Amino acid sequence: MEYVIKFVYGFLLPPGLFVILLVVICSLLFRKKNLLVFLLGSVALSMYVAFIPLTGILLVHPLEYRYEPPADPRGDVIVMLGGGATLGTPDMNGSGQLSGNAANRLLTVFRLYRQTHLPIILSGGKVYPDSGVEADIGRRQLIALGVPREKILTENKSITTKTNAVNTKKLLTAHRYRHPILVTSAFHMPRAVRLFRQLNIQVTPYPTDYLTSRKTVIYPGQFVPSNGGITFTALKEYVGMLASYF
User: Fold this and answer.
1) Ranges of each domain in the chain
2) Closest CA to 118 of 136, 142, 144
3) Which residues contact 124 (CB under 8 A, 6 or more apart)?
4) What is the per-residue DSSP string for 39-99?
5) Domain 77-208 class?
6) What backbone torsions phi and psi does residue 154 show, to the nearest 5 degrees?
7) Where exactly are the transmembrane stretches of this chain (predicted)?
8) Strand spans (E) along the chain
């Protein structure tokens, strides 16, 4: 019964509700068979396909599984790219928290540190006026988890993946690090690796923060419109990779 309720909710709340409304309007105007009906039907179909979870999974899956995290990562420094942070929100030992993506990345960095005891570079600045400084928040949280202060370097000016790479390269050069282990979300890793390699930085990818399961399972919920977040994330990455060629 719970799954039936979830299925129905998907079409009673936006964006599913908008798809239903467009379909109803098309049905009422169907007999006229004019250009407006064709356009509204096309919009309804496009919205439906864009907002069902299956579309997002199929788009993001090739990104997430391009690289595998090595069982025994080798390098001389761990580099983590920022992925969003809040400003002024209460935390246990200060203010400001990392977003879900960035928090997952930080957890992986901490576990890698426990395994390797390598120094850490956190890259990420204040992207928007109402967001926190990603690298500084990450540093505070790692110190609270027990990572020594002297083991953490911060690069807190970057606001894009490209500036992450450019500014991180400066720190790598200054501290003579040559073999960075790169930690970022799995969907983000292909673009990040490409931008670092354009700067002649040969990273060891360590993807984390997966949005999809390795096995794609087809069930009714995959065809219920949702917020389309995964689809948007995947399209953003594909557009970003295209832009990196220019």
Assistant:
1) 2-64+222-243, 77-208
2) 142
3) 81, 82, 83, 85, 102, 133, 134, 135, 138, 155, 156, 158, 164
4) HHHHHHHHHHHHHSHHHHHHHHHHHHTSS---SS---SEEEEE---BBSS-EETTEE--B-
5) alpha beta
6) -120, 140
7) 7-30, 36-60
8) 77-81, 90-91, 94-95, 120-123, 152-155, 180-185, 204-208
Give the pTM: 0.90
Cβ–Cβ < 8 Å for 235, 243 = no
| Residue written as token pair 């995290």 | 69
Torsion of CA 147, 148, 152, 154, to 10 degrees: 90
Distance, in Å, from the CA atom of 210 to the CA atom of 186, rounded to the nearest integer, reads 6
83, 207 Cβ separation under 8 angstroms: no
Nearest to 96 by CA among 83, 87, 107, 104: 87
Tell me the residue type at 50: A
Q: Please provide residue 183's backbone torsions phi and psi, each rounded to the nearest 5 degrees.
A: -115, 120
What pLDDT digit, counting tens, does each position of 64-95 carry? 999 999 999 999 999 999 999 999 999 999 99
- In the block, which residue shows the tokens 């509700």? 17
